[in-house]
Write a structure and sequence with these properties.
It is a single chain. This protein is an alpha/beta fold. It has one domain: 3-Layer(aba) Sandwich (Rossmann fold). The chain has seven helices and ten strands.
């Protein structure tokens, strides 16, 4: 499903160039659950952004479901992202003035995928155990509940891939464990490809494979 070959990412900062990823070769199979680990500055989030079609590499090839996406226009990348990828972020990224239901529904509308937005949003909240909290705003929810709303927002698009960037990073240990139990359950039930950036060894331990990055290169875990 996901095949990266020679992926390099260079950011230009005035006269200076910063190479964040260096010739990354990586394959992630359909339905696999993978952790990406490494020290701060190792390129984890940049790699996740390229996999999620939020960014383009400076060099290299990215095949997603057999289609070359590394050189698509911003508009075409957005189309691919809307169809295939759901995102879960450390800071939840919920709009505070909207209810949980409206936050999930808005995510579907932005993706422009299908219709019946409200019904799909309610179903997604049911899947994460928050149907009874649908009318609550983020400030009325715990951190763990907010992250479950964020997961519902990703699920409601019916993506084939979910990318999670430090999904337990802002949670206490119990809430983090609950969120990981939810993600692993969804992965096993729906065969969603799940890629998680994390600093937490306990999170990585429940994944099928751990990819370790250092200085923009994969040091272990590239092979399936």
């Amino acid at each position: 499903m996901i095949r990266l070959a020679g992926i390099t990412k260079v950011y230009r900062m005035g006269q200076r160039e910063l190479t964040v990823l260096r010739s990354i070769d990586l394959t992630i199979s359909r339905g696999e659950m993978v952790a990406i680990m490494g020290p701060s500055g190792s390129g984890k989030t940049t790699l996740l952004n390229i996999i999620g079609c939020l960014d383009r590499p400076t060099a290299g090839s990215y095949l997603l479901d057999g289609d070359e996406v590394s050189r698509l226009s911003s508009h075409d990348l957005a189309e691919v992202r809307g169809r295939k990828v759901g995102f879960v972020f450390q800071t939840f990224n919920l709009l505070p003035q909207l209810s949980a239901l409206a936050n999930v529904e808005l995510g579907i509308r932005y993706s422009r995928q299908g219709d019946h937005y409200r019904e799909r949003a309610l179903l997604a909240l049911e899947k994460v155990g928050l149907a009874d909290r649908a009318s609550h705003r983020p400030t009325e929810l715990s951190g763990g509940e907010q992250q479950r709303v964020a997961i519902a927002r990703a699920l409601a698009k019916e993506p084939s891939i979910i990318l999670a960037d430090e999904p337990t990073g802002n949670l206490d240990s119990r809430s983090g464990a609950d969120v990981m139990a939810l993600l692993t359950g969804l992965h096993s039930e729906q065969a969603i490809t799940l890629v998680i950036v994390t600093h937490d060894a306990d999170v990585a331990a429940v994944c099928q494979r751990t990819i370790n990055l250092k200085d923009g290169q994969i040091v272990t875990g590239a092979a399936t």
